[in-house]
Amino acid sequence: MSVKVRFAPSPTGYLHAGNVRTAIVTWLFTRNQNGHFLLRIDDTDIARSKPEYEEDIESALMWLGITWDEKARQRDRSARYAELIEKLKRDGRLYPCYETPEELSLKRKTLLSRGLPPIYDRAALELTETQKTKYEGENRVPHWRFKLEHTPIIWNDLVRGEVKFDGATMSDPVLLREDGTPLYHLCSVIDDMDYDITHVVRGEDHVSNTAAHIQMFEALGAPVPQFAHLPMISDKEGGKLSKRLGSMSARDFRDSEKLEPMAIVSLLARLGSADPIMPFTEMQPLIDEFDISKFSKGAPKFDMEELLRLNQKIIHQTPFEDVNVRLAQMDMETLDESFWIAVRPNLTRLEDIREWWNVVNNPVETTINDPDFITQAAGLLPPEPWDETTWKLWTDKVKENTGRKGKDLFMPLRQALTGMDHGPELGVILPLLGAEKTRRRLTKQKQAA
Fold this sequence. Notes:
Blueprint: E1 4-7, H1 17-32, E2 36-41, H2 51-64, E3 70-73, H3 78-90, E4 94-97, H4 101-113, H5 129-137, E5 143-146, E6 152-157, E7 161-166, E8 174-176, H6 184-194, E9 199-203, H7 207-219, E10 226-230, E11 234-235, H8 243-246, H9 250-256, H10 261-268, H11 284-289, E12 301-302, H12 304-317, H13 324-329, H14 337-343, H15 353-361, H16 371-378, H17 390-402, H18 407-418, H19 426-442
Parallel strand pairs: 1-2, 2-3, 9-10, 11-12
Antiparallel strand pairs: 4-5, 5-8, 6-7
């Protein structure tokens, strides 16, 4: 059977870091298997689902380089859900329950106070038709539960290995709300069945759901997919992700942090696996080397500093032709390849290039703390044309004439030329400034700097 996998986000918010990781791992697994990737929008929560969130999901995936072969929306499938709901009712696998939320809460508290697990007692299965009629006469509207078989539930998880549950120790899950709308569980299983999904990749918080889902597949006469449950991400100390990182979305990575999409992919594609995390500039090597069995059950640590290091390394490898359009969109359309190569080693984010563009092209507040030395150095500037050898020729001459060396030689020159005490090698900055601008800055003639 050919591999068919789905990524099924809910459009009730922006695509957060955990979902981004699931999307990347799912997509790489699918492409490694030459499979079919379905983007399924799980939008049965009508009240919270919004078109702008669906648009954000799609734009985030495209920004990350994740493409899909097919797209579906749950809201378009109500008739199909209704059809199979009736089947499960006829088969006795869905049954009505009339307890109020307050009554269920009391049952739960009573069991917990006795040191027992809060499992639903199936009291609704004992109701007579007369009792049901009485409840309905009291304007009680039932919710509907799925009747689990009290048998072992076992599957071989592609990440966790063999997983076992006992149906007798689980609560029958609610599948229909009081208003008759189905919950996530049933819709997900029906969709996976109808779209011939062979593998489901998702977070470990769904492990107990999977146990119930397996019996739903069986009740519907459908083949059970293979499952891979990824461990949840922790912070770099091994604790729960902070609110800022835990709620960080693809939108934040792109718009606020200004990160390269391949930095996100490089980190999250291998986070928690046996493969080393490296800066990748394209997807194909990640696809070729992907193996979901290399992921461990331990919680991987998300480190923002590591993400920034990857971003920096990717920027340093990026050729000019891959960024020139983006630079033009940043109002630096005249920035050429020589400038890019000169400042690229000093960038962590592409956005950082604005600083060096301004240093070279716009007036800057330079600092001259040693005017006699700077005046002497200005008088020793070599004639044009200037190239990458000019800086050494000049500083060698300054050193010979002033006796200065090391930091005492270079720092005053850097501060006088750029107004900063750090940055790209002045050997590459000097030709970008040119002789006239360099001389003006050294002599503090700020006009038209």
